[in-house]
Amino acid sequence: MRLLLVEDDTMIGEAVLDLLRAEHYAVDWVRDGEMAATAAQAENYDLILLDLGLPRRDGLEVLRELRARKNRVPVLVATARDSVQQRVQGLDAGADDYILKPYDLDELLARIRALLRRASGRAEPVYEHLGVSINTATREVTAQGEPVVLSAREWAVLEPLIARPGRVLSRAQLEEKLYGWKDDVSSNAVEVYIHGVRKKLGAGLIQNVRGVGYMVPKA
Ligand code: CA
To answer: Which end of the chain is more exposed for a tag (fewer CB within 10 A), N or C?
Structure first.
C-alpha cells in the first residue's frame, strides 16, 4: 500500500517514516502544504497521514481542496492533543479519522490499518480462500493450516490485491505500491514477488488477467 506522509517536523517525520516502512508500506514524505496538495493530485495514494499545522499551506485547506476535487483518498489527520476544535474542523473538512499528537505509534498503525480496511469495504481483517488464510492486521498467513512467512516485498504486492478481491490491478499499479519515490524499480520486480507469493501460497491465489494485470479471486 502506498502512503503519503505530510509532516513538517523532521524528527517526527523520520520516526513515522521508519515505522511505516518497517511495516512494509511504500511511503512518500512531504513537509509542507503546497507539496502535499501537489503530491496528492499527482499520485494515487491509498492513504494520507496529514499534519494540520504546516508551512506554506494549512493542512485543513489542503484537505478541503482535495475533497472539493472529489478526491476520496482516506485521510487521517494528526491533531493536537488539547484541541477538540482541531479535531472537529478536521472531520468536518473531510478527514476520515484523526490521531492525537504526540503519536502513540501502535495506535497510529492500528488506525491506518482500520482506514485501509474500511476503504476496501471489509470490516474484518481476514481473507480466507483456497486453503489460504490471511490476516492483514496481524500479518499472519497460513496455507493449508501451516504458517507461512512472506517477505516485505511479497506483502507489498499481495496486500493491495487482497484489499479488494475481484479487482484487477495492472503491473504498473502494483509497482506503484511497491516503492516510494526514492527506490529503484527493476523491470520484472512485480513478477518476481508474485512468483514468490505463488510458491508459498499456491498458484491459484494471484491470477493473471491476460493483458490487464493481476487479481485475487473473491473469497
Ligand atoms: Ca506541524
So the answer is: C
